[in-house]
Amino acid sequence: MKISILLENGLFLQAKGFGAKGTSVGEIVFNTSMTGYQEIITDPSYAGQFVVFTASEIGNVGVNADDMESKGAWLKGVIVRNYNPNYSNFRGEQALHTFLEKEGIIGISDIDTRFLTKLIRDEGSQMMIASSEIHDRDELAKLLQVSPHISEINYINEVTTPEMYIHNQGAWNDETLSYNEPNTSKTIAVYDFGVKRNILNELTNVGLKCEVYPAQTPAEELIKKYQNNEIMGVFLSNGPGDPLVLTEVKENVQKLIKAKIPMFGICLGHQLLSIAHGYDTFKLKFGHHGGNHPVKQKSVEITAQNHNYNVPEEIKNIAEVTHTNLFDNTIEGVKYKDEPIFSVQHHPEASPGPRESKYIFKEFADML
Known about the structure:
Elements: E1 2-7, E2 12-19, E3 23-31, H1 37-41, E4 49-53, E5 57-58, E6 77-79, E7 82-83, H2 96-103, E8 106-109, H3 113-123, E9 126-131, H4 137-146, H5 156-159, E10 165-167, E11 172-173, E12 178-179, E13 186-192, H6 197-205, E14 208-214, H7 219-227, E15 234-236, H8 247-258, E16 263-266, H9 268-276, E17 282-296, E18 300-310, E19 319-325, E20 331-336, E21 341-344, H10 359-367
Parallel strand pairs: 3-4, 4-6, 5-7, 6-8, 13-14, 13-15, 15-16, 16-21
Antiparallel strand pairs: 1-2, 1-9, 2-8, 3-9, 10-14, 11-12, 17-18, 17-19, 19-20, 20-21
Helix pairs in contact: 7-8, 8-9
């Protein structure tokens, strides 16, 4: 099917479509990972975005239940150079276009993704509209103009769990091709702002039983559980959108800080801790999305990344910087002074990506 695309800067393109039909508006970003398209597509942090894959071949290995990072797909669309509908992998269970169609996600192929990546790099992330139904440029422009910007939308309420549940699955075992079932000796509460399954797996793998709570859970509920020794700490998860619109969540985090509860945050959780301490985040030009970003700690590690927002340099007033991005020297991790709290911007659980940062989960367990 034909897909018509209009970017915020006025660029009008046409390409081929796979997956769901319809019209969708979102923010366009690019991801530089060479593998793991299913994990990226099912990462709730991409809610509200179109993802341009710099890997030129997508679809080759199909889709399977084990590689899901959440219960479905939350992004607005997938943009690829070449889509292969005939997957070939012993773990594959269905074709990507079949999965996208079920999830209501537009797929776009036969388009110059190198050109789009350079455009985003040079002009920054921006809103776009894609449609299999509307092919008139002016009509697309009107729809794009009246659609809310991604920074105005709270996607957390869409991606969070509707009720508390317990996660006890461990990390993936490459030898058995199954998930471990480790013993857990400490219980933590997880604020689900769009948590990836593999983050929960890695927390469990270091002995932490995860009670996963909806994003709207009052802080008082978790403070009471901590005071009653029912939990030993709180994890703040990754998630989509602009953290500055999450005023209710910020207030809950501030209450947890005041209660001196040990905390660890990844990505959005890292940003929320900064905001709750009084240091607002800022938006990067085109964000960091991919599985090949060098970060300096005591040594250099290659990390997985997915964020459009960053904490400010002024955070150094109250926190020690533990990790620094070597692409642009932005802050990637902090440990707060005189508080049992630390956080990282990158994704130590990878999926997809390198596994060099897994030690961070052990550090949280040791702190508890």
